[in-house]
Structure formats: C-alpha cells, structure tokens
Amino acid sequence: MPNTLQTSLKNKASSTTEKGLGRVSEILDAARHILASEGYAGLSMRKVASEVGISLSNVQHYFQSKDMLMEAVLLMTMNQFQEKLDSITSKMEQQPRIEQLNSAISMFLEELSNPVTYGMFFEIWALAARNDFASKLMDKMIARERKAIFKLIQGLNPAISDEEYKLRATLIVAQVEGLMLFRYHRQTQKAEMLEVHAALKKSVIGLASIA
Fold it and tell me: What's the CA gap between 27 and 101, in Å, rounded?
C-alpha cells in the first residue's frame, strides 16, 4: 500500500512521512466513497475534509484541487489492480498462462462488483463524455488495462501476431468494462450475473488462444 500511495501523490511522494501516507489513505478512501455515492458534483475538498475529520487546508496540502484529488483516486485504484495482477502472476508462475488469465479476469470482475469501485468508475465513464479532464483520465485507465491484458495474452498462440493481440486486448477490456453498465442495473439477479461472467471468461479465453 505505501508504494501505491507514493505513486498517487506524485510530486509530494518523496517528502511525505509514514504518518502522512496514512492521512493520504484516509483522504483517498473518503474521496472514493463520495465519488461513488454522490458523483463528481457531490465531491468537494471540503466534504472530504469533513468526512476524514481534518481541516480543508490539510487536504489541500496533499491535493491542490478537486481534479488532482480525483486523479489520485483513480491512480491509486489502478495501482491496486496492478498489484493484484502482479500477485496473481507471481503466485501462479508455474501454472499455465491461460489459468493466470482466467484468475486475472476473475479478479477484475470481483473488483468491479464492489459497489464503491463500480460506482466510481461508472461516474468517471459518464463524466468523460462531457469533461475533458475525466476523458483524459479514462484514456489513461484504459491504456493501462490494455497493457496489462496484452502482457497476459501475448504469445499464447504463436499464430497470432502481437498487433492482433493488442487489438484483442482492447476487445477484452471493452467486454470487461462493458459489464459495469450491466452490473449497475440493480435488478440484475445474482444467478444471471454468474452466467454472464462465465460467458465472458469463455469469450476471453477464445480471444486469447484461438487464431
């Protein structure tokens, strides 16, 4: 977690103490919950400060603006995803890469089923259509996801070129991200979601291995 917080802080990373990183964690966690439940319009530096129980100036010491705070929230979330992906590949190093891929997709689906995570991403997706800053954030997130998936599937089938695998990584990300809209429908039954997840995994394995 410290490394994740350090990279989320950017310019202040090197001068932030362990105690400061704990405060940053509280700030980002509060901001993530507010963004997920109240949207971008409901997110404010003052509200985050109130939620954490600190002064506004304390929040501004680490994040000078609302957009910088939102960027840090997304960066921290993506870093956590990457850490979990790295953990999967490390623990499953001796297992077939198809199994590693299957576990990675399961991780993504589990994370996106978390109300806070999908609420936050759903809000940024919606905001990206009309907000240039949110659009750039979304582009960064998708680029990182594509790169992570590409590394997992590259070379699984020698008949598939790297360029084709890059395209397929994009399709896989689109399928996984698209499920956020489906998951957000609160009427969806759990059994139906499990069927959809199983179908998605089958489709991903096909994209990763069938020429």
Answer: 33
Question: Token pair of 185, please?
Answer: 């429908």
Q: Which residues lie below 8 Å from residue 147, measured CB to CB, with a gap of 6+?
A: 169
Tens digit of pLDDT per residue, the chain (211 long)? 445 455 455 545 444 566 778 899 999 999 999 999 998 899 999 999 999 999 999 999 999 999 999 899 988 888 888 899 889 989 998 999 899 999 999 998 888 888 888 888 888 888 888 888 888 888 988 898 899 899 999 999 999 999 999 999 999 999 988 887 776 555 667 788 888 889 999 999 999 999 9
The answer to whether 136 and 198 are in contact (CB under 8 A) is no
Distance CA 200, CA 118 (A): 17
CA dihedral 102, 197, 87, 91 (to 10 degrees): -40
Query: What does the alpha-carbon distance between residue 200 and residue 206 come to, in Å, rounded to a whole number?
Result: 10
**For residue 77, how many other CB atoms are within 10 A of its CB?**
21
Q: Which long-range contacts (CB under 8 A, 24 or more apart) does 47-53 make?
A: 52/23, 52/26, 52/27
Rounded distance, CA 16 to CA 199, Å?
45
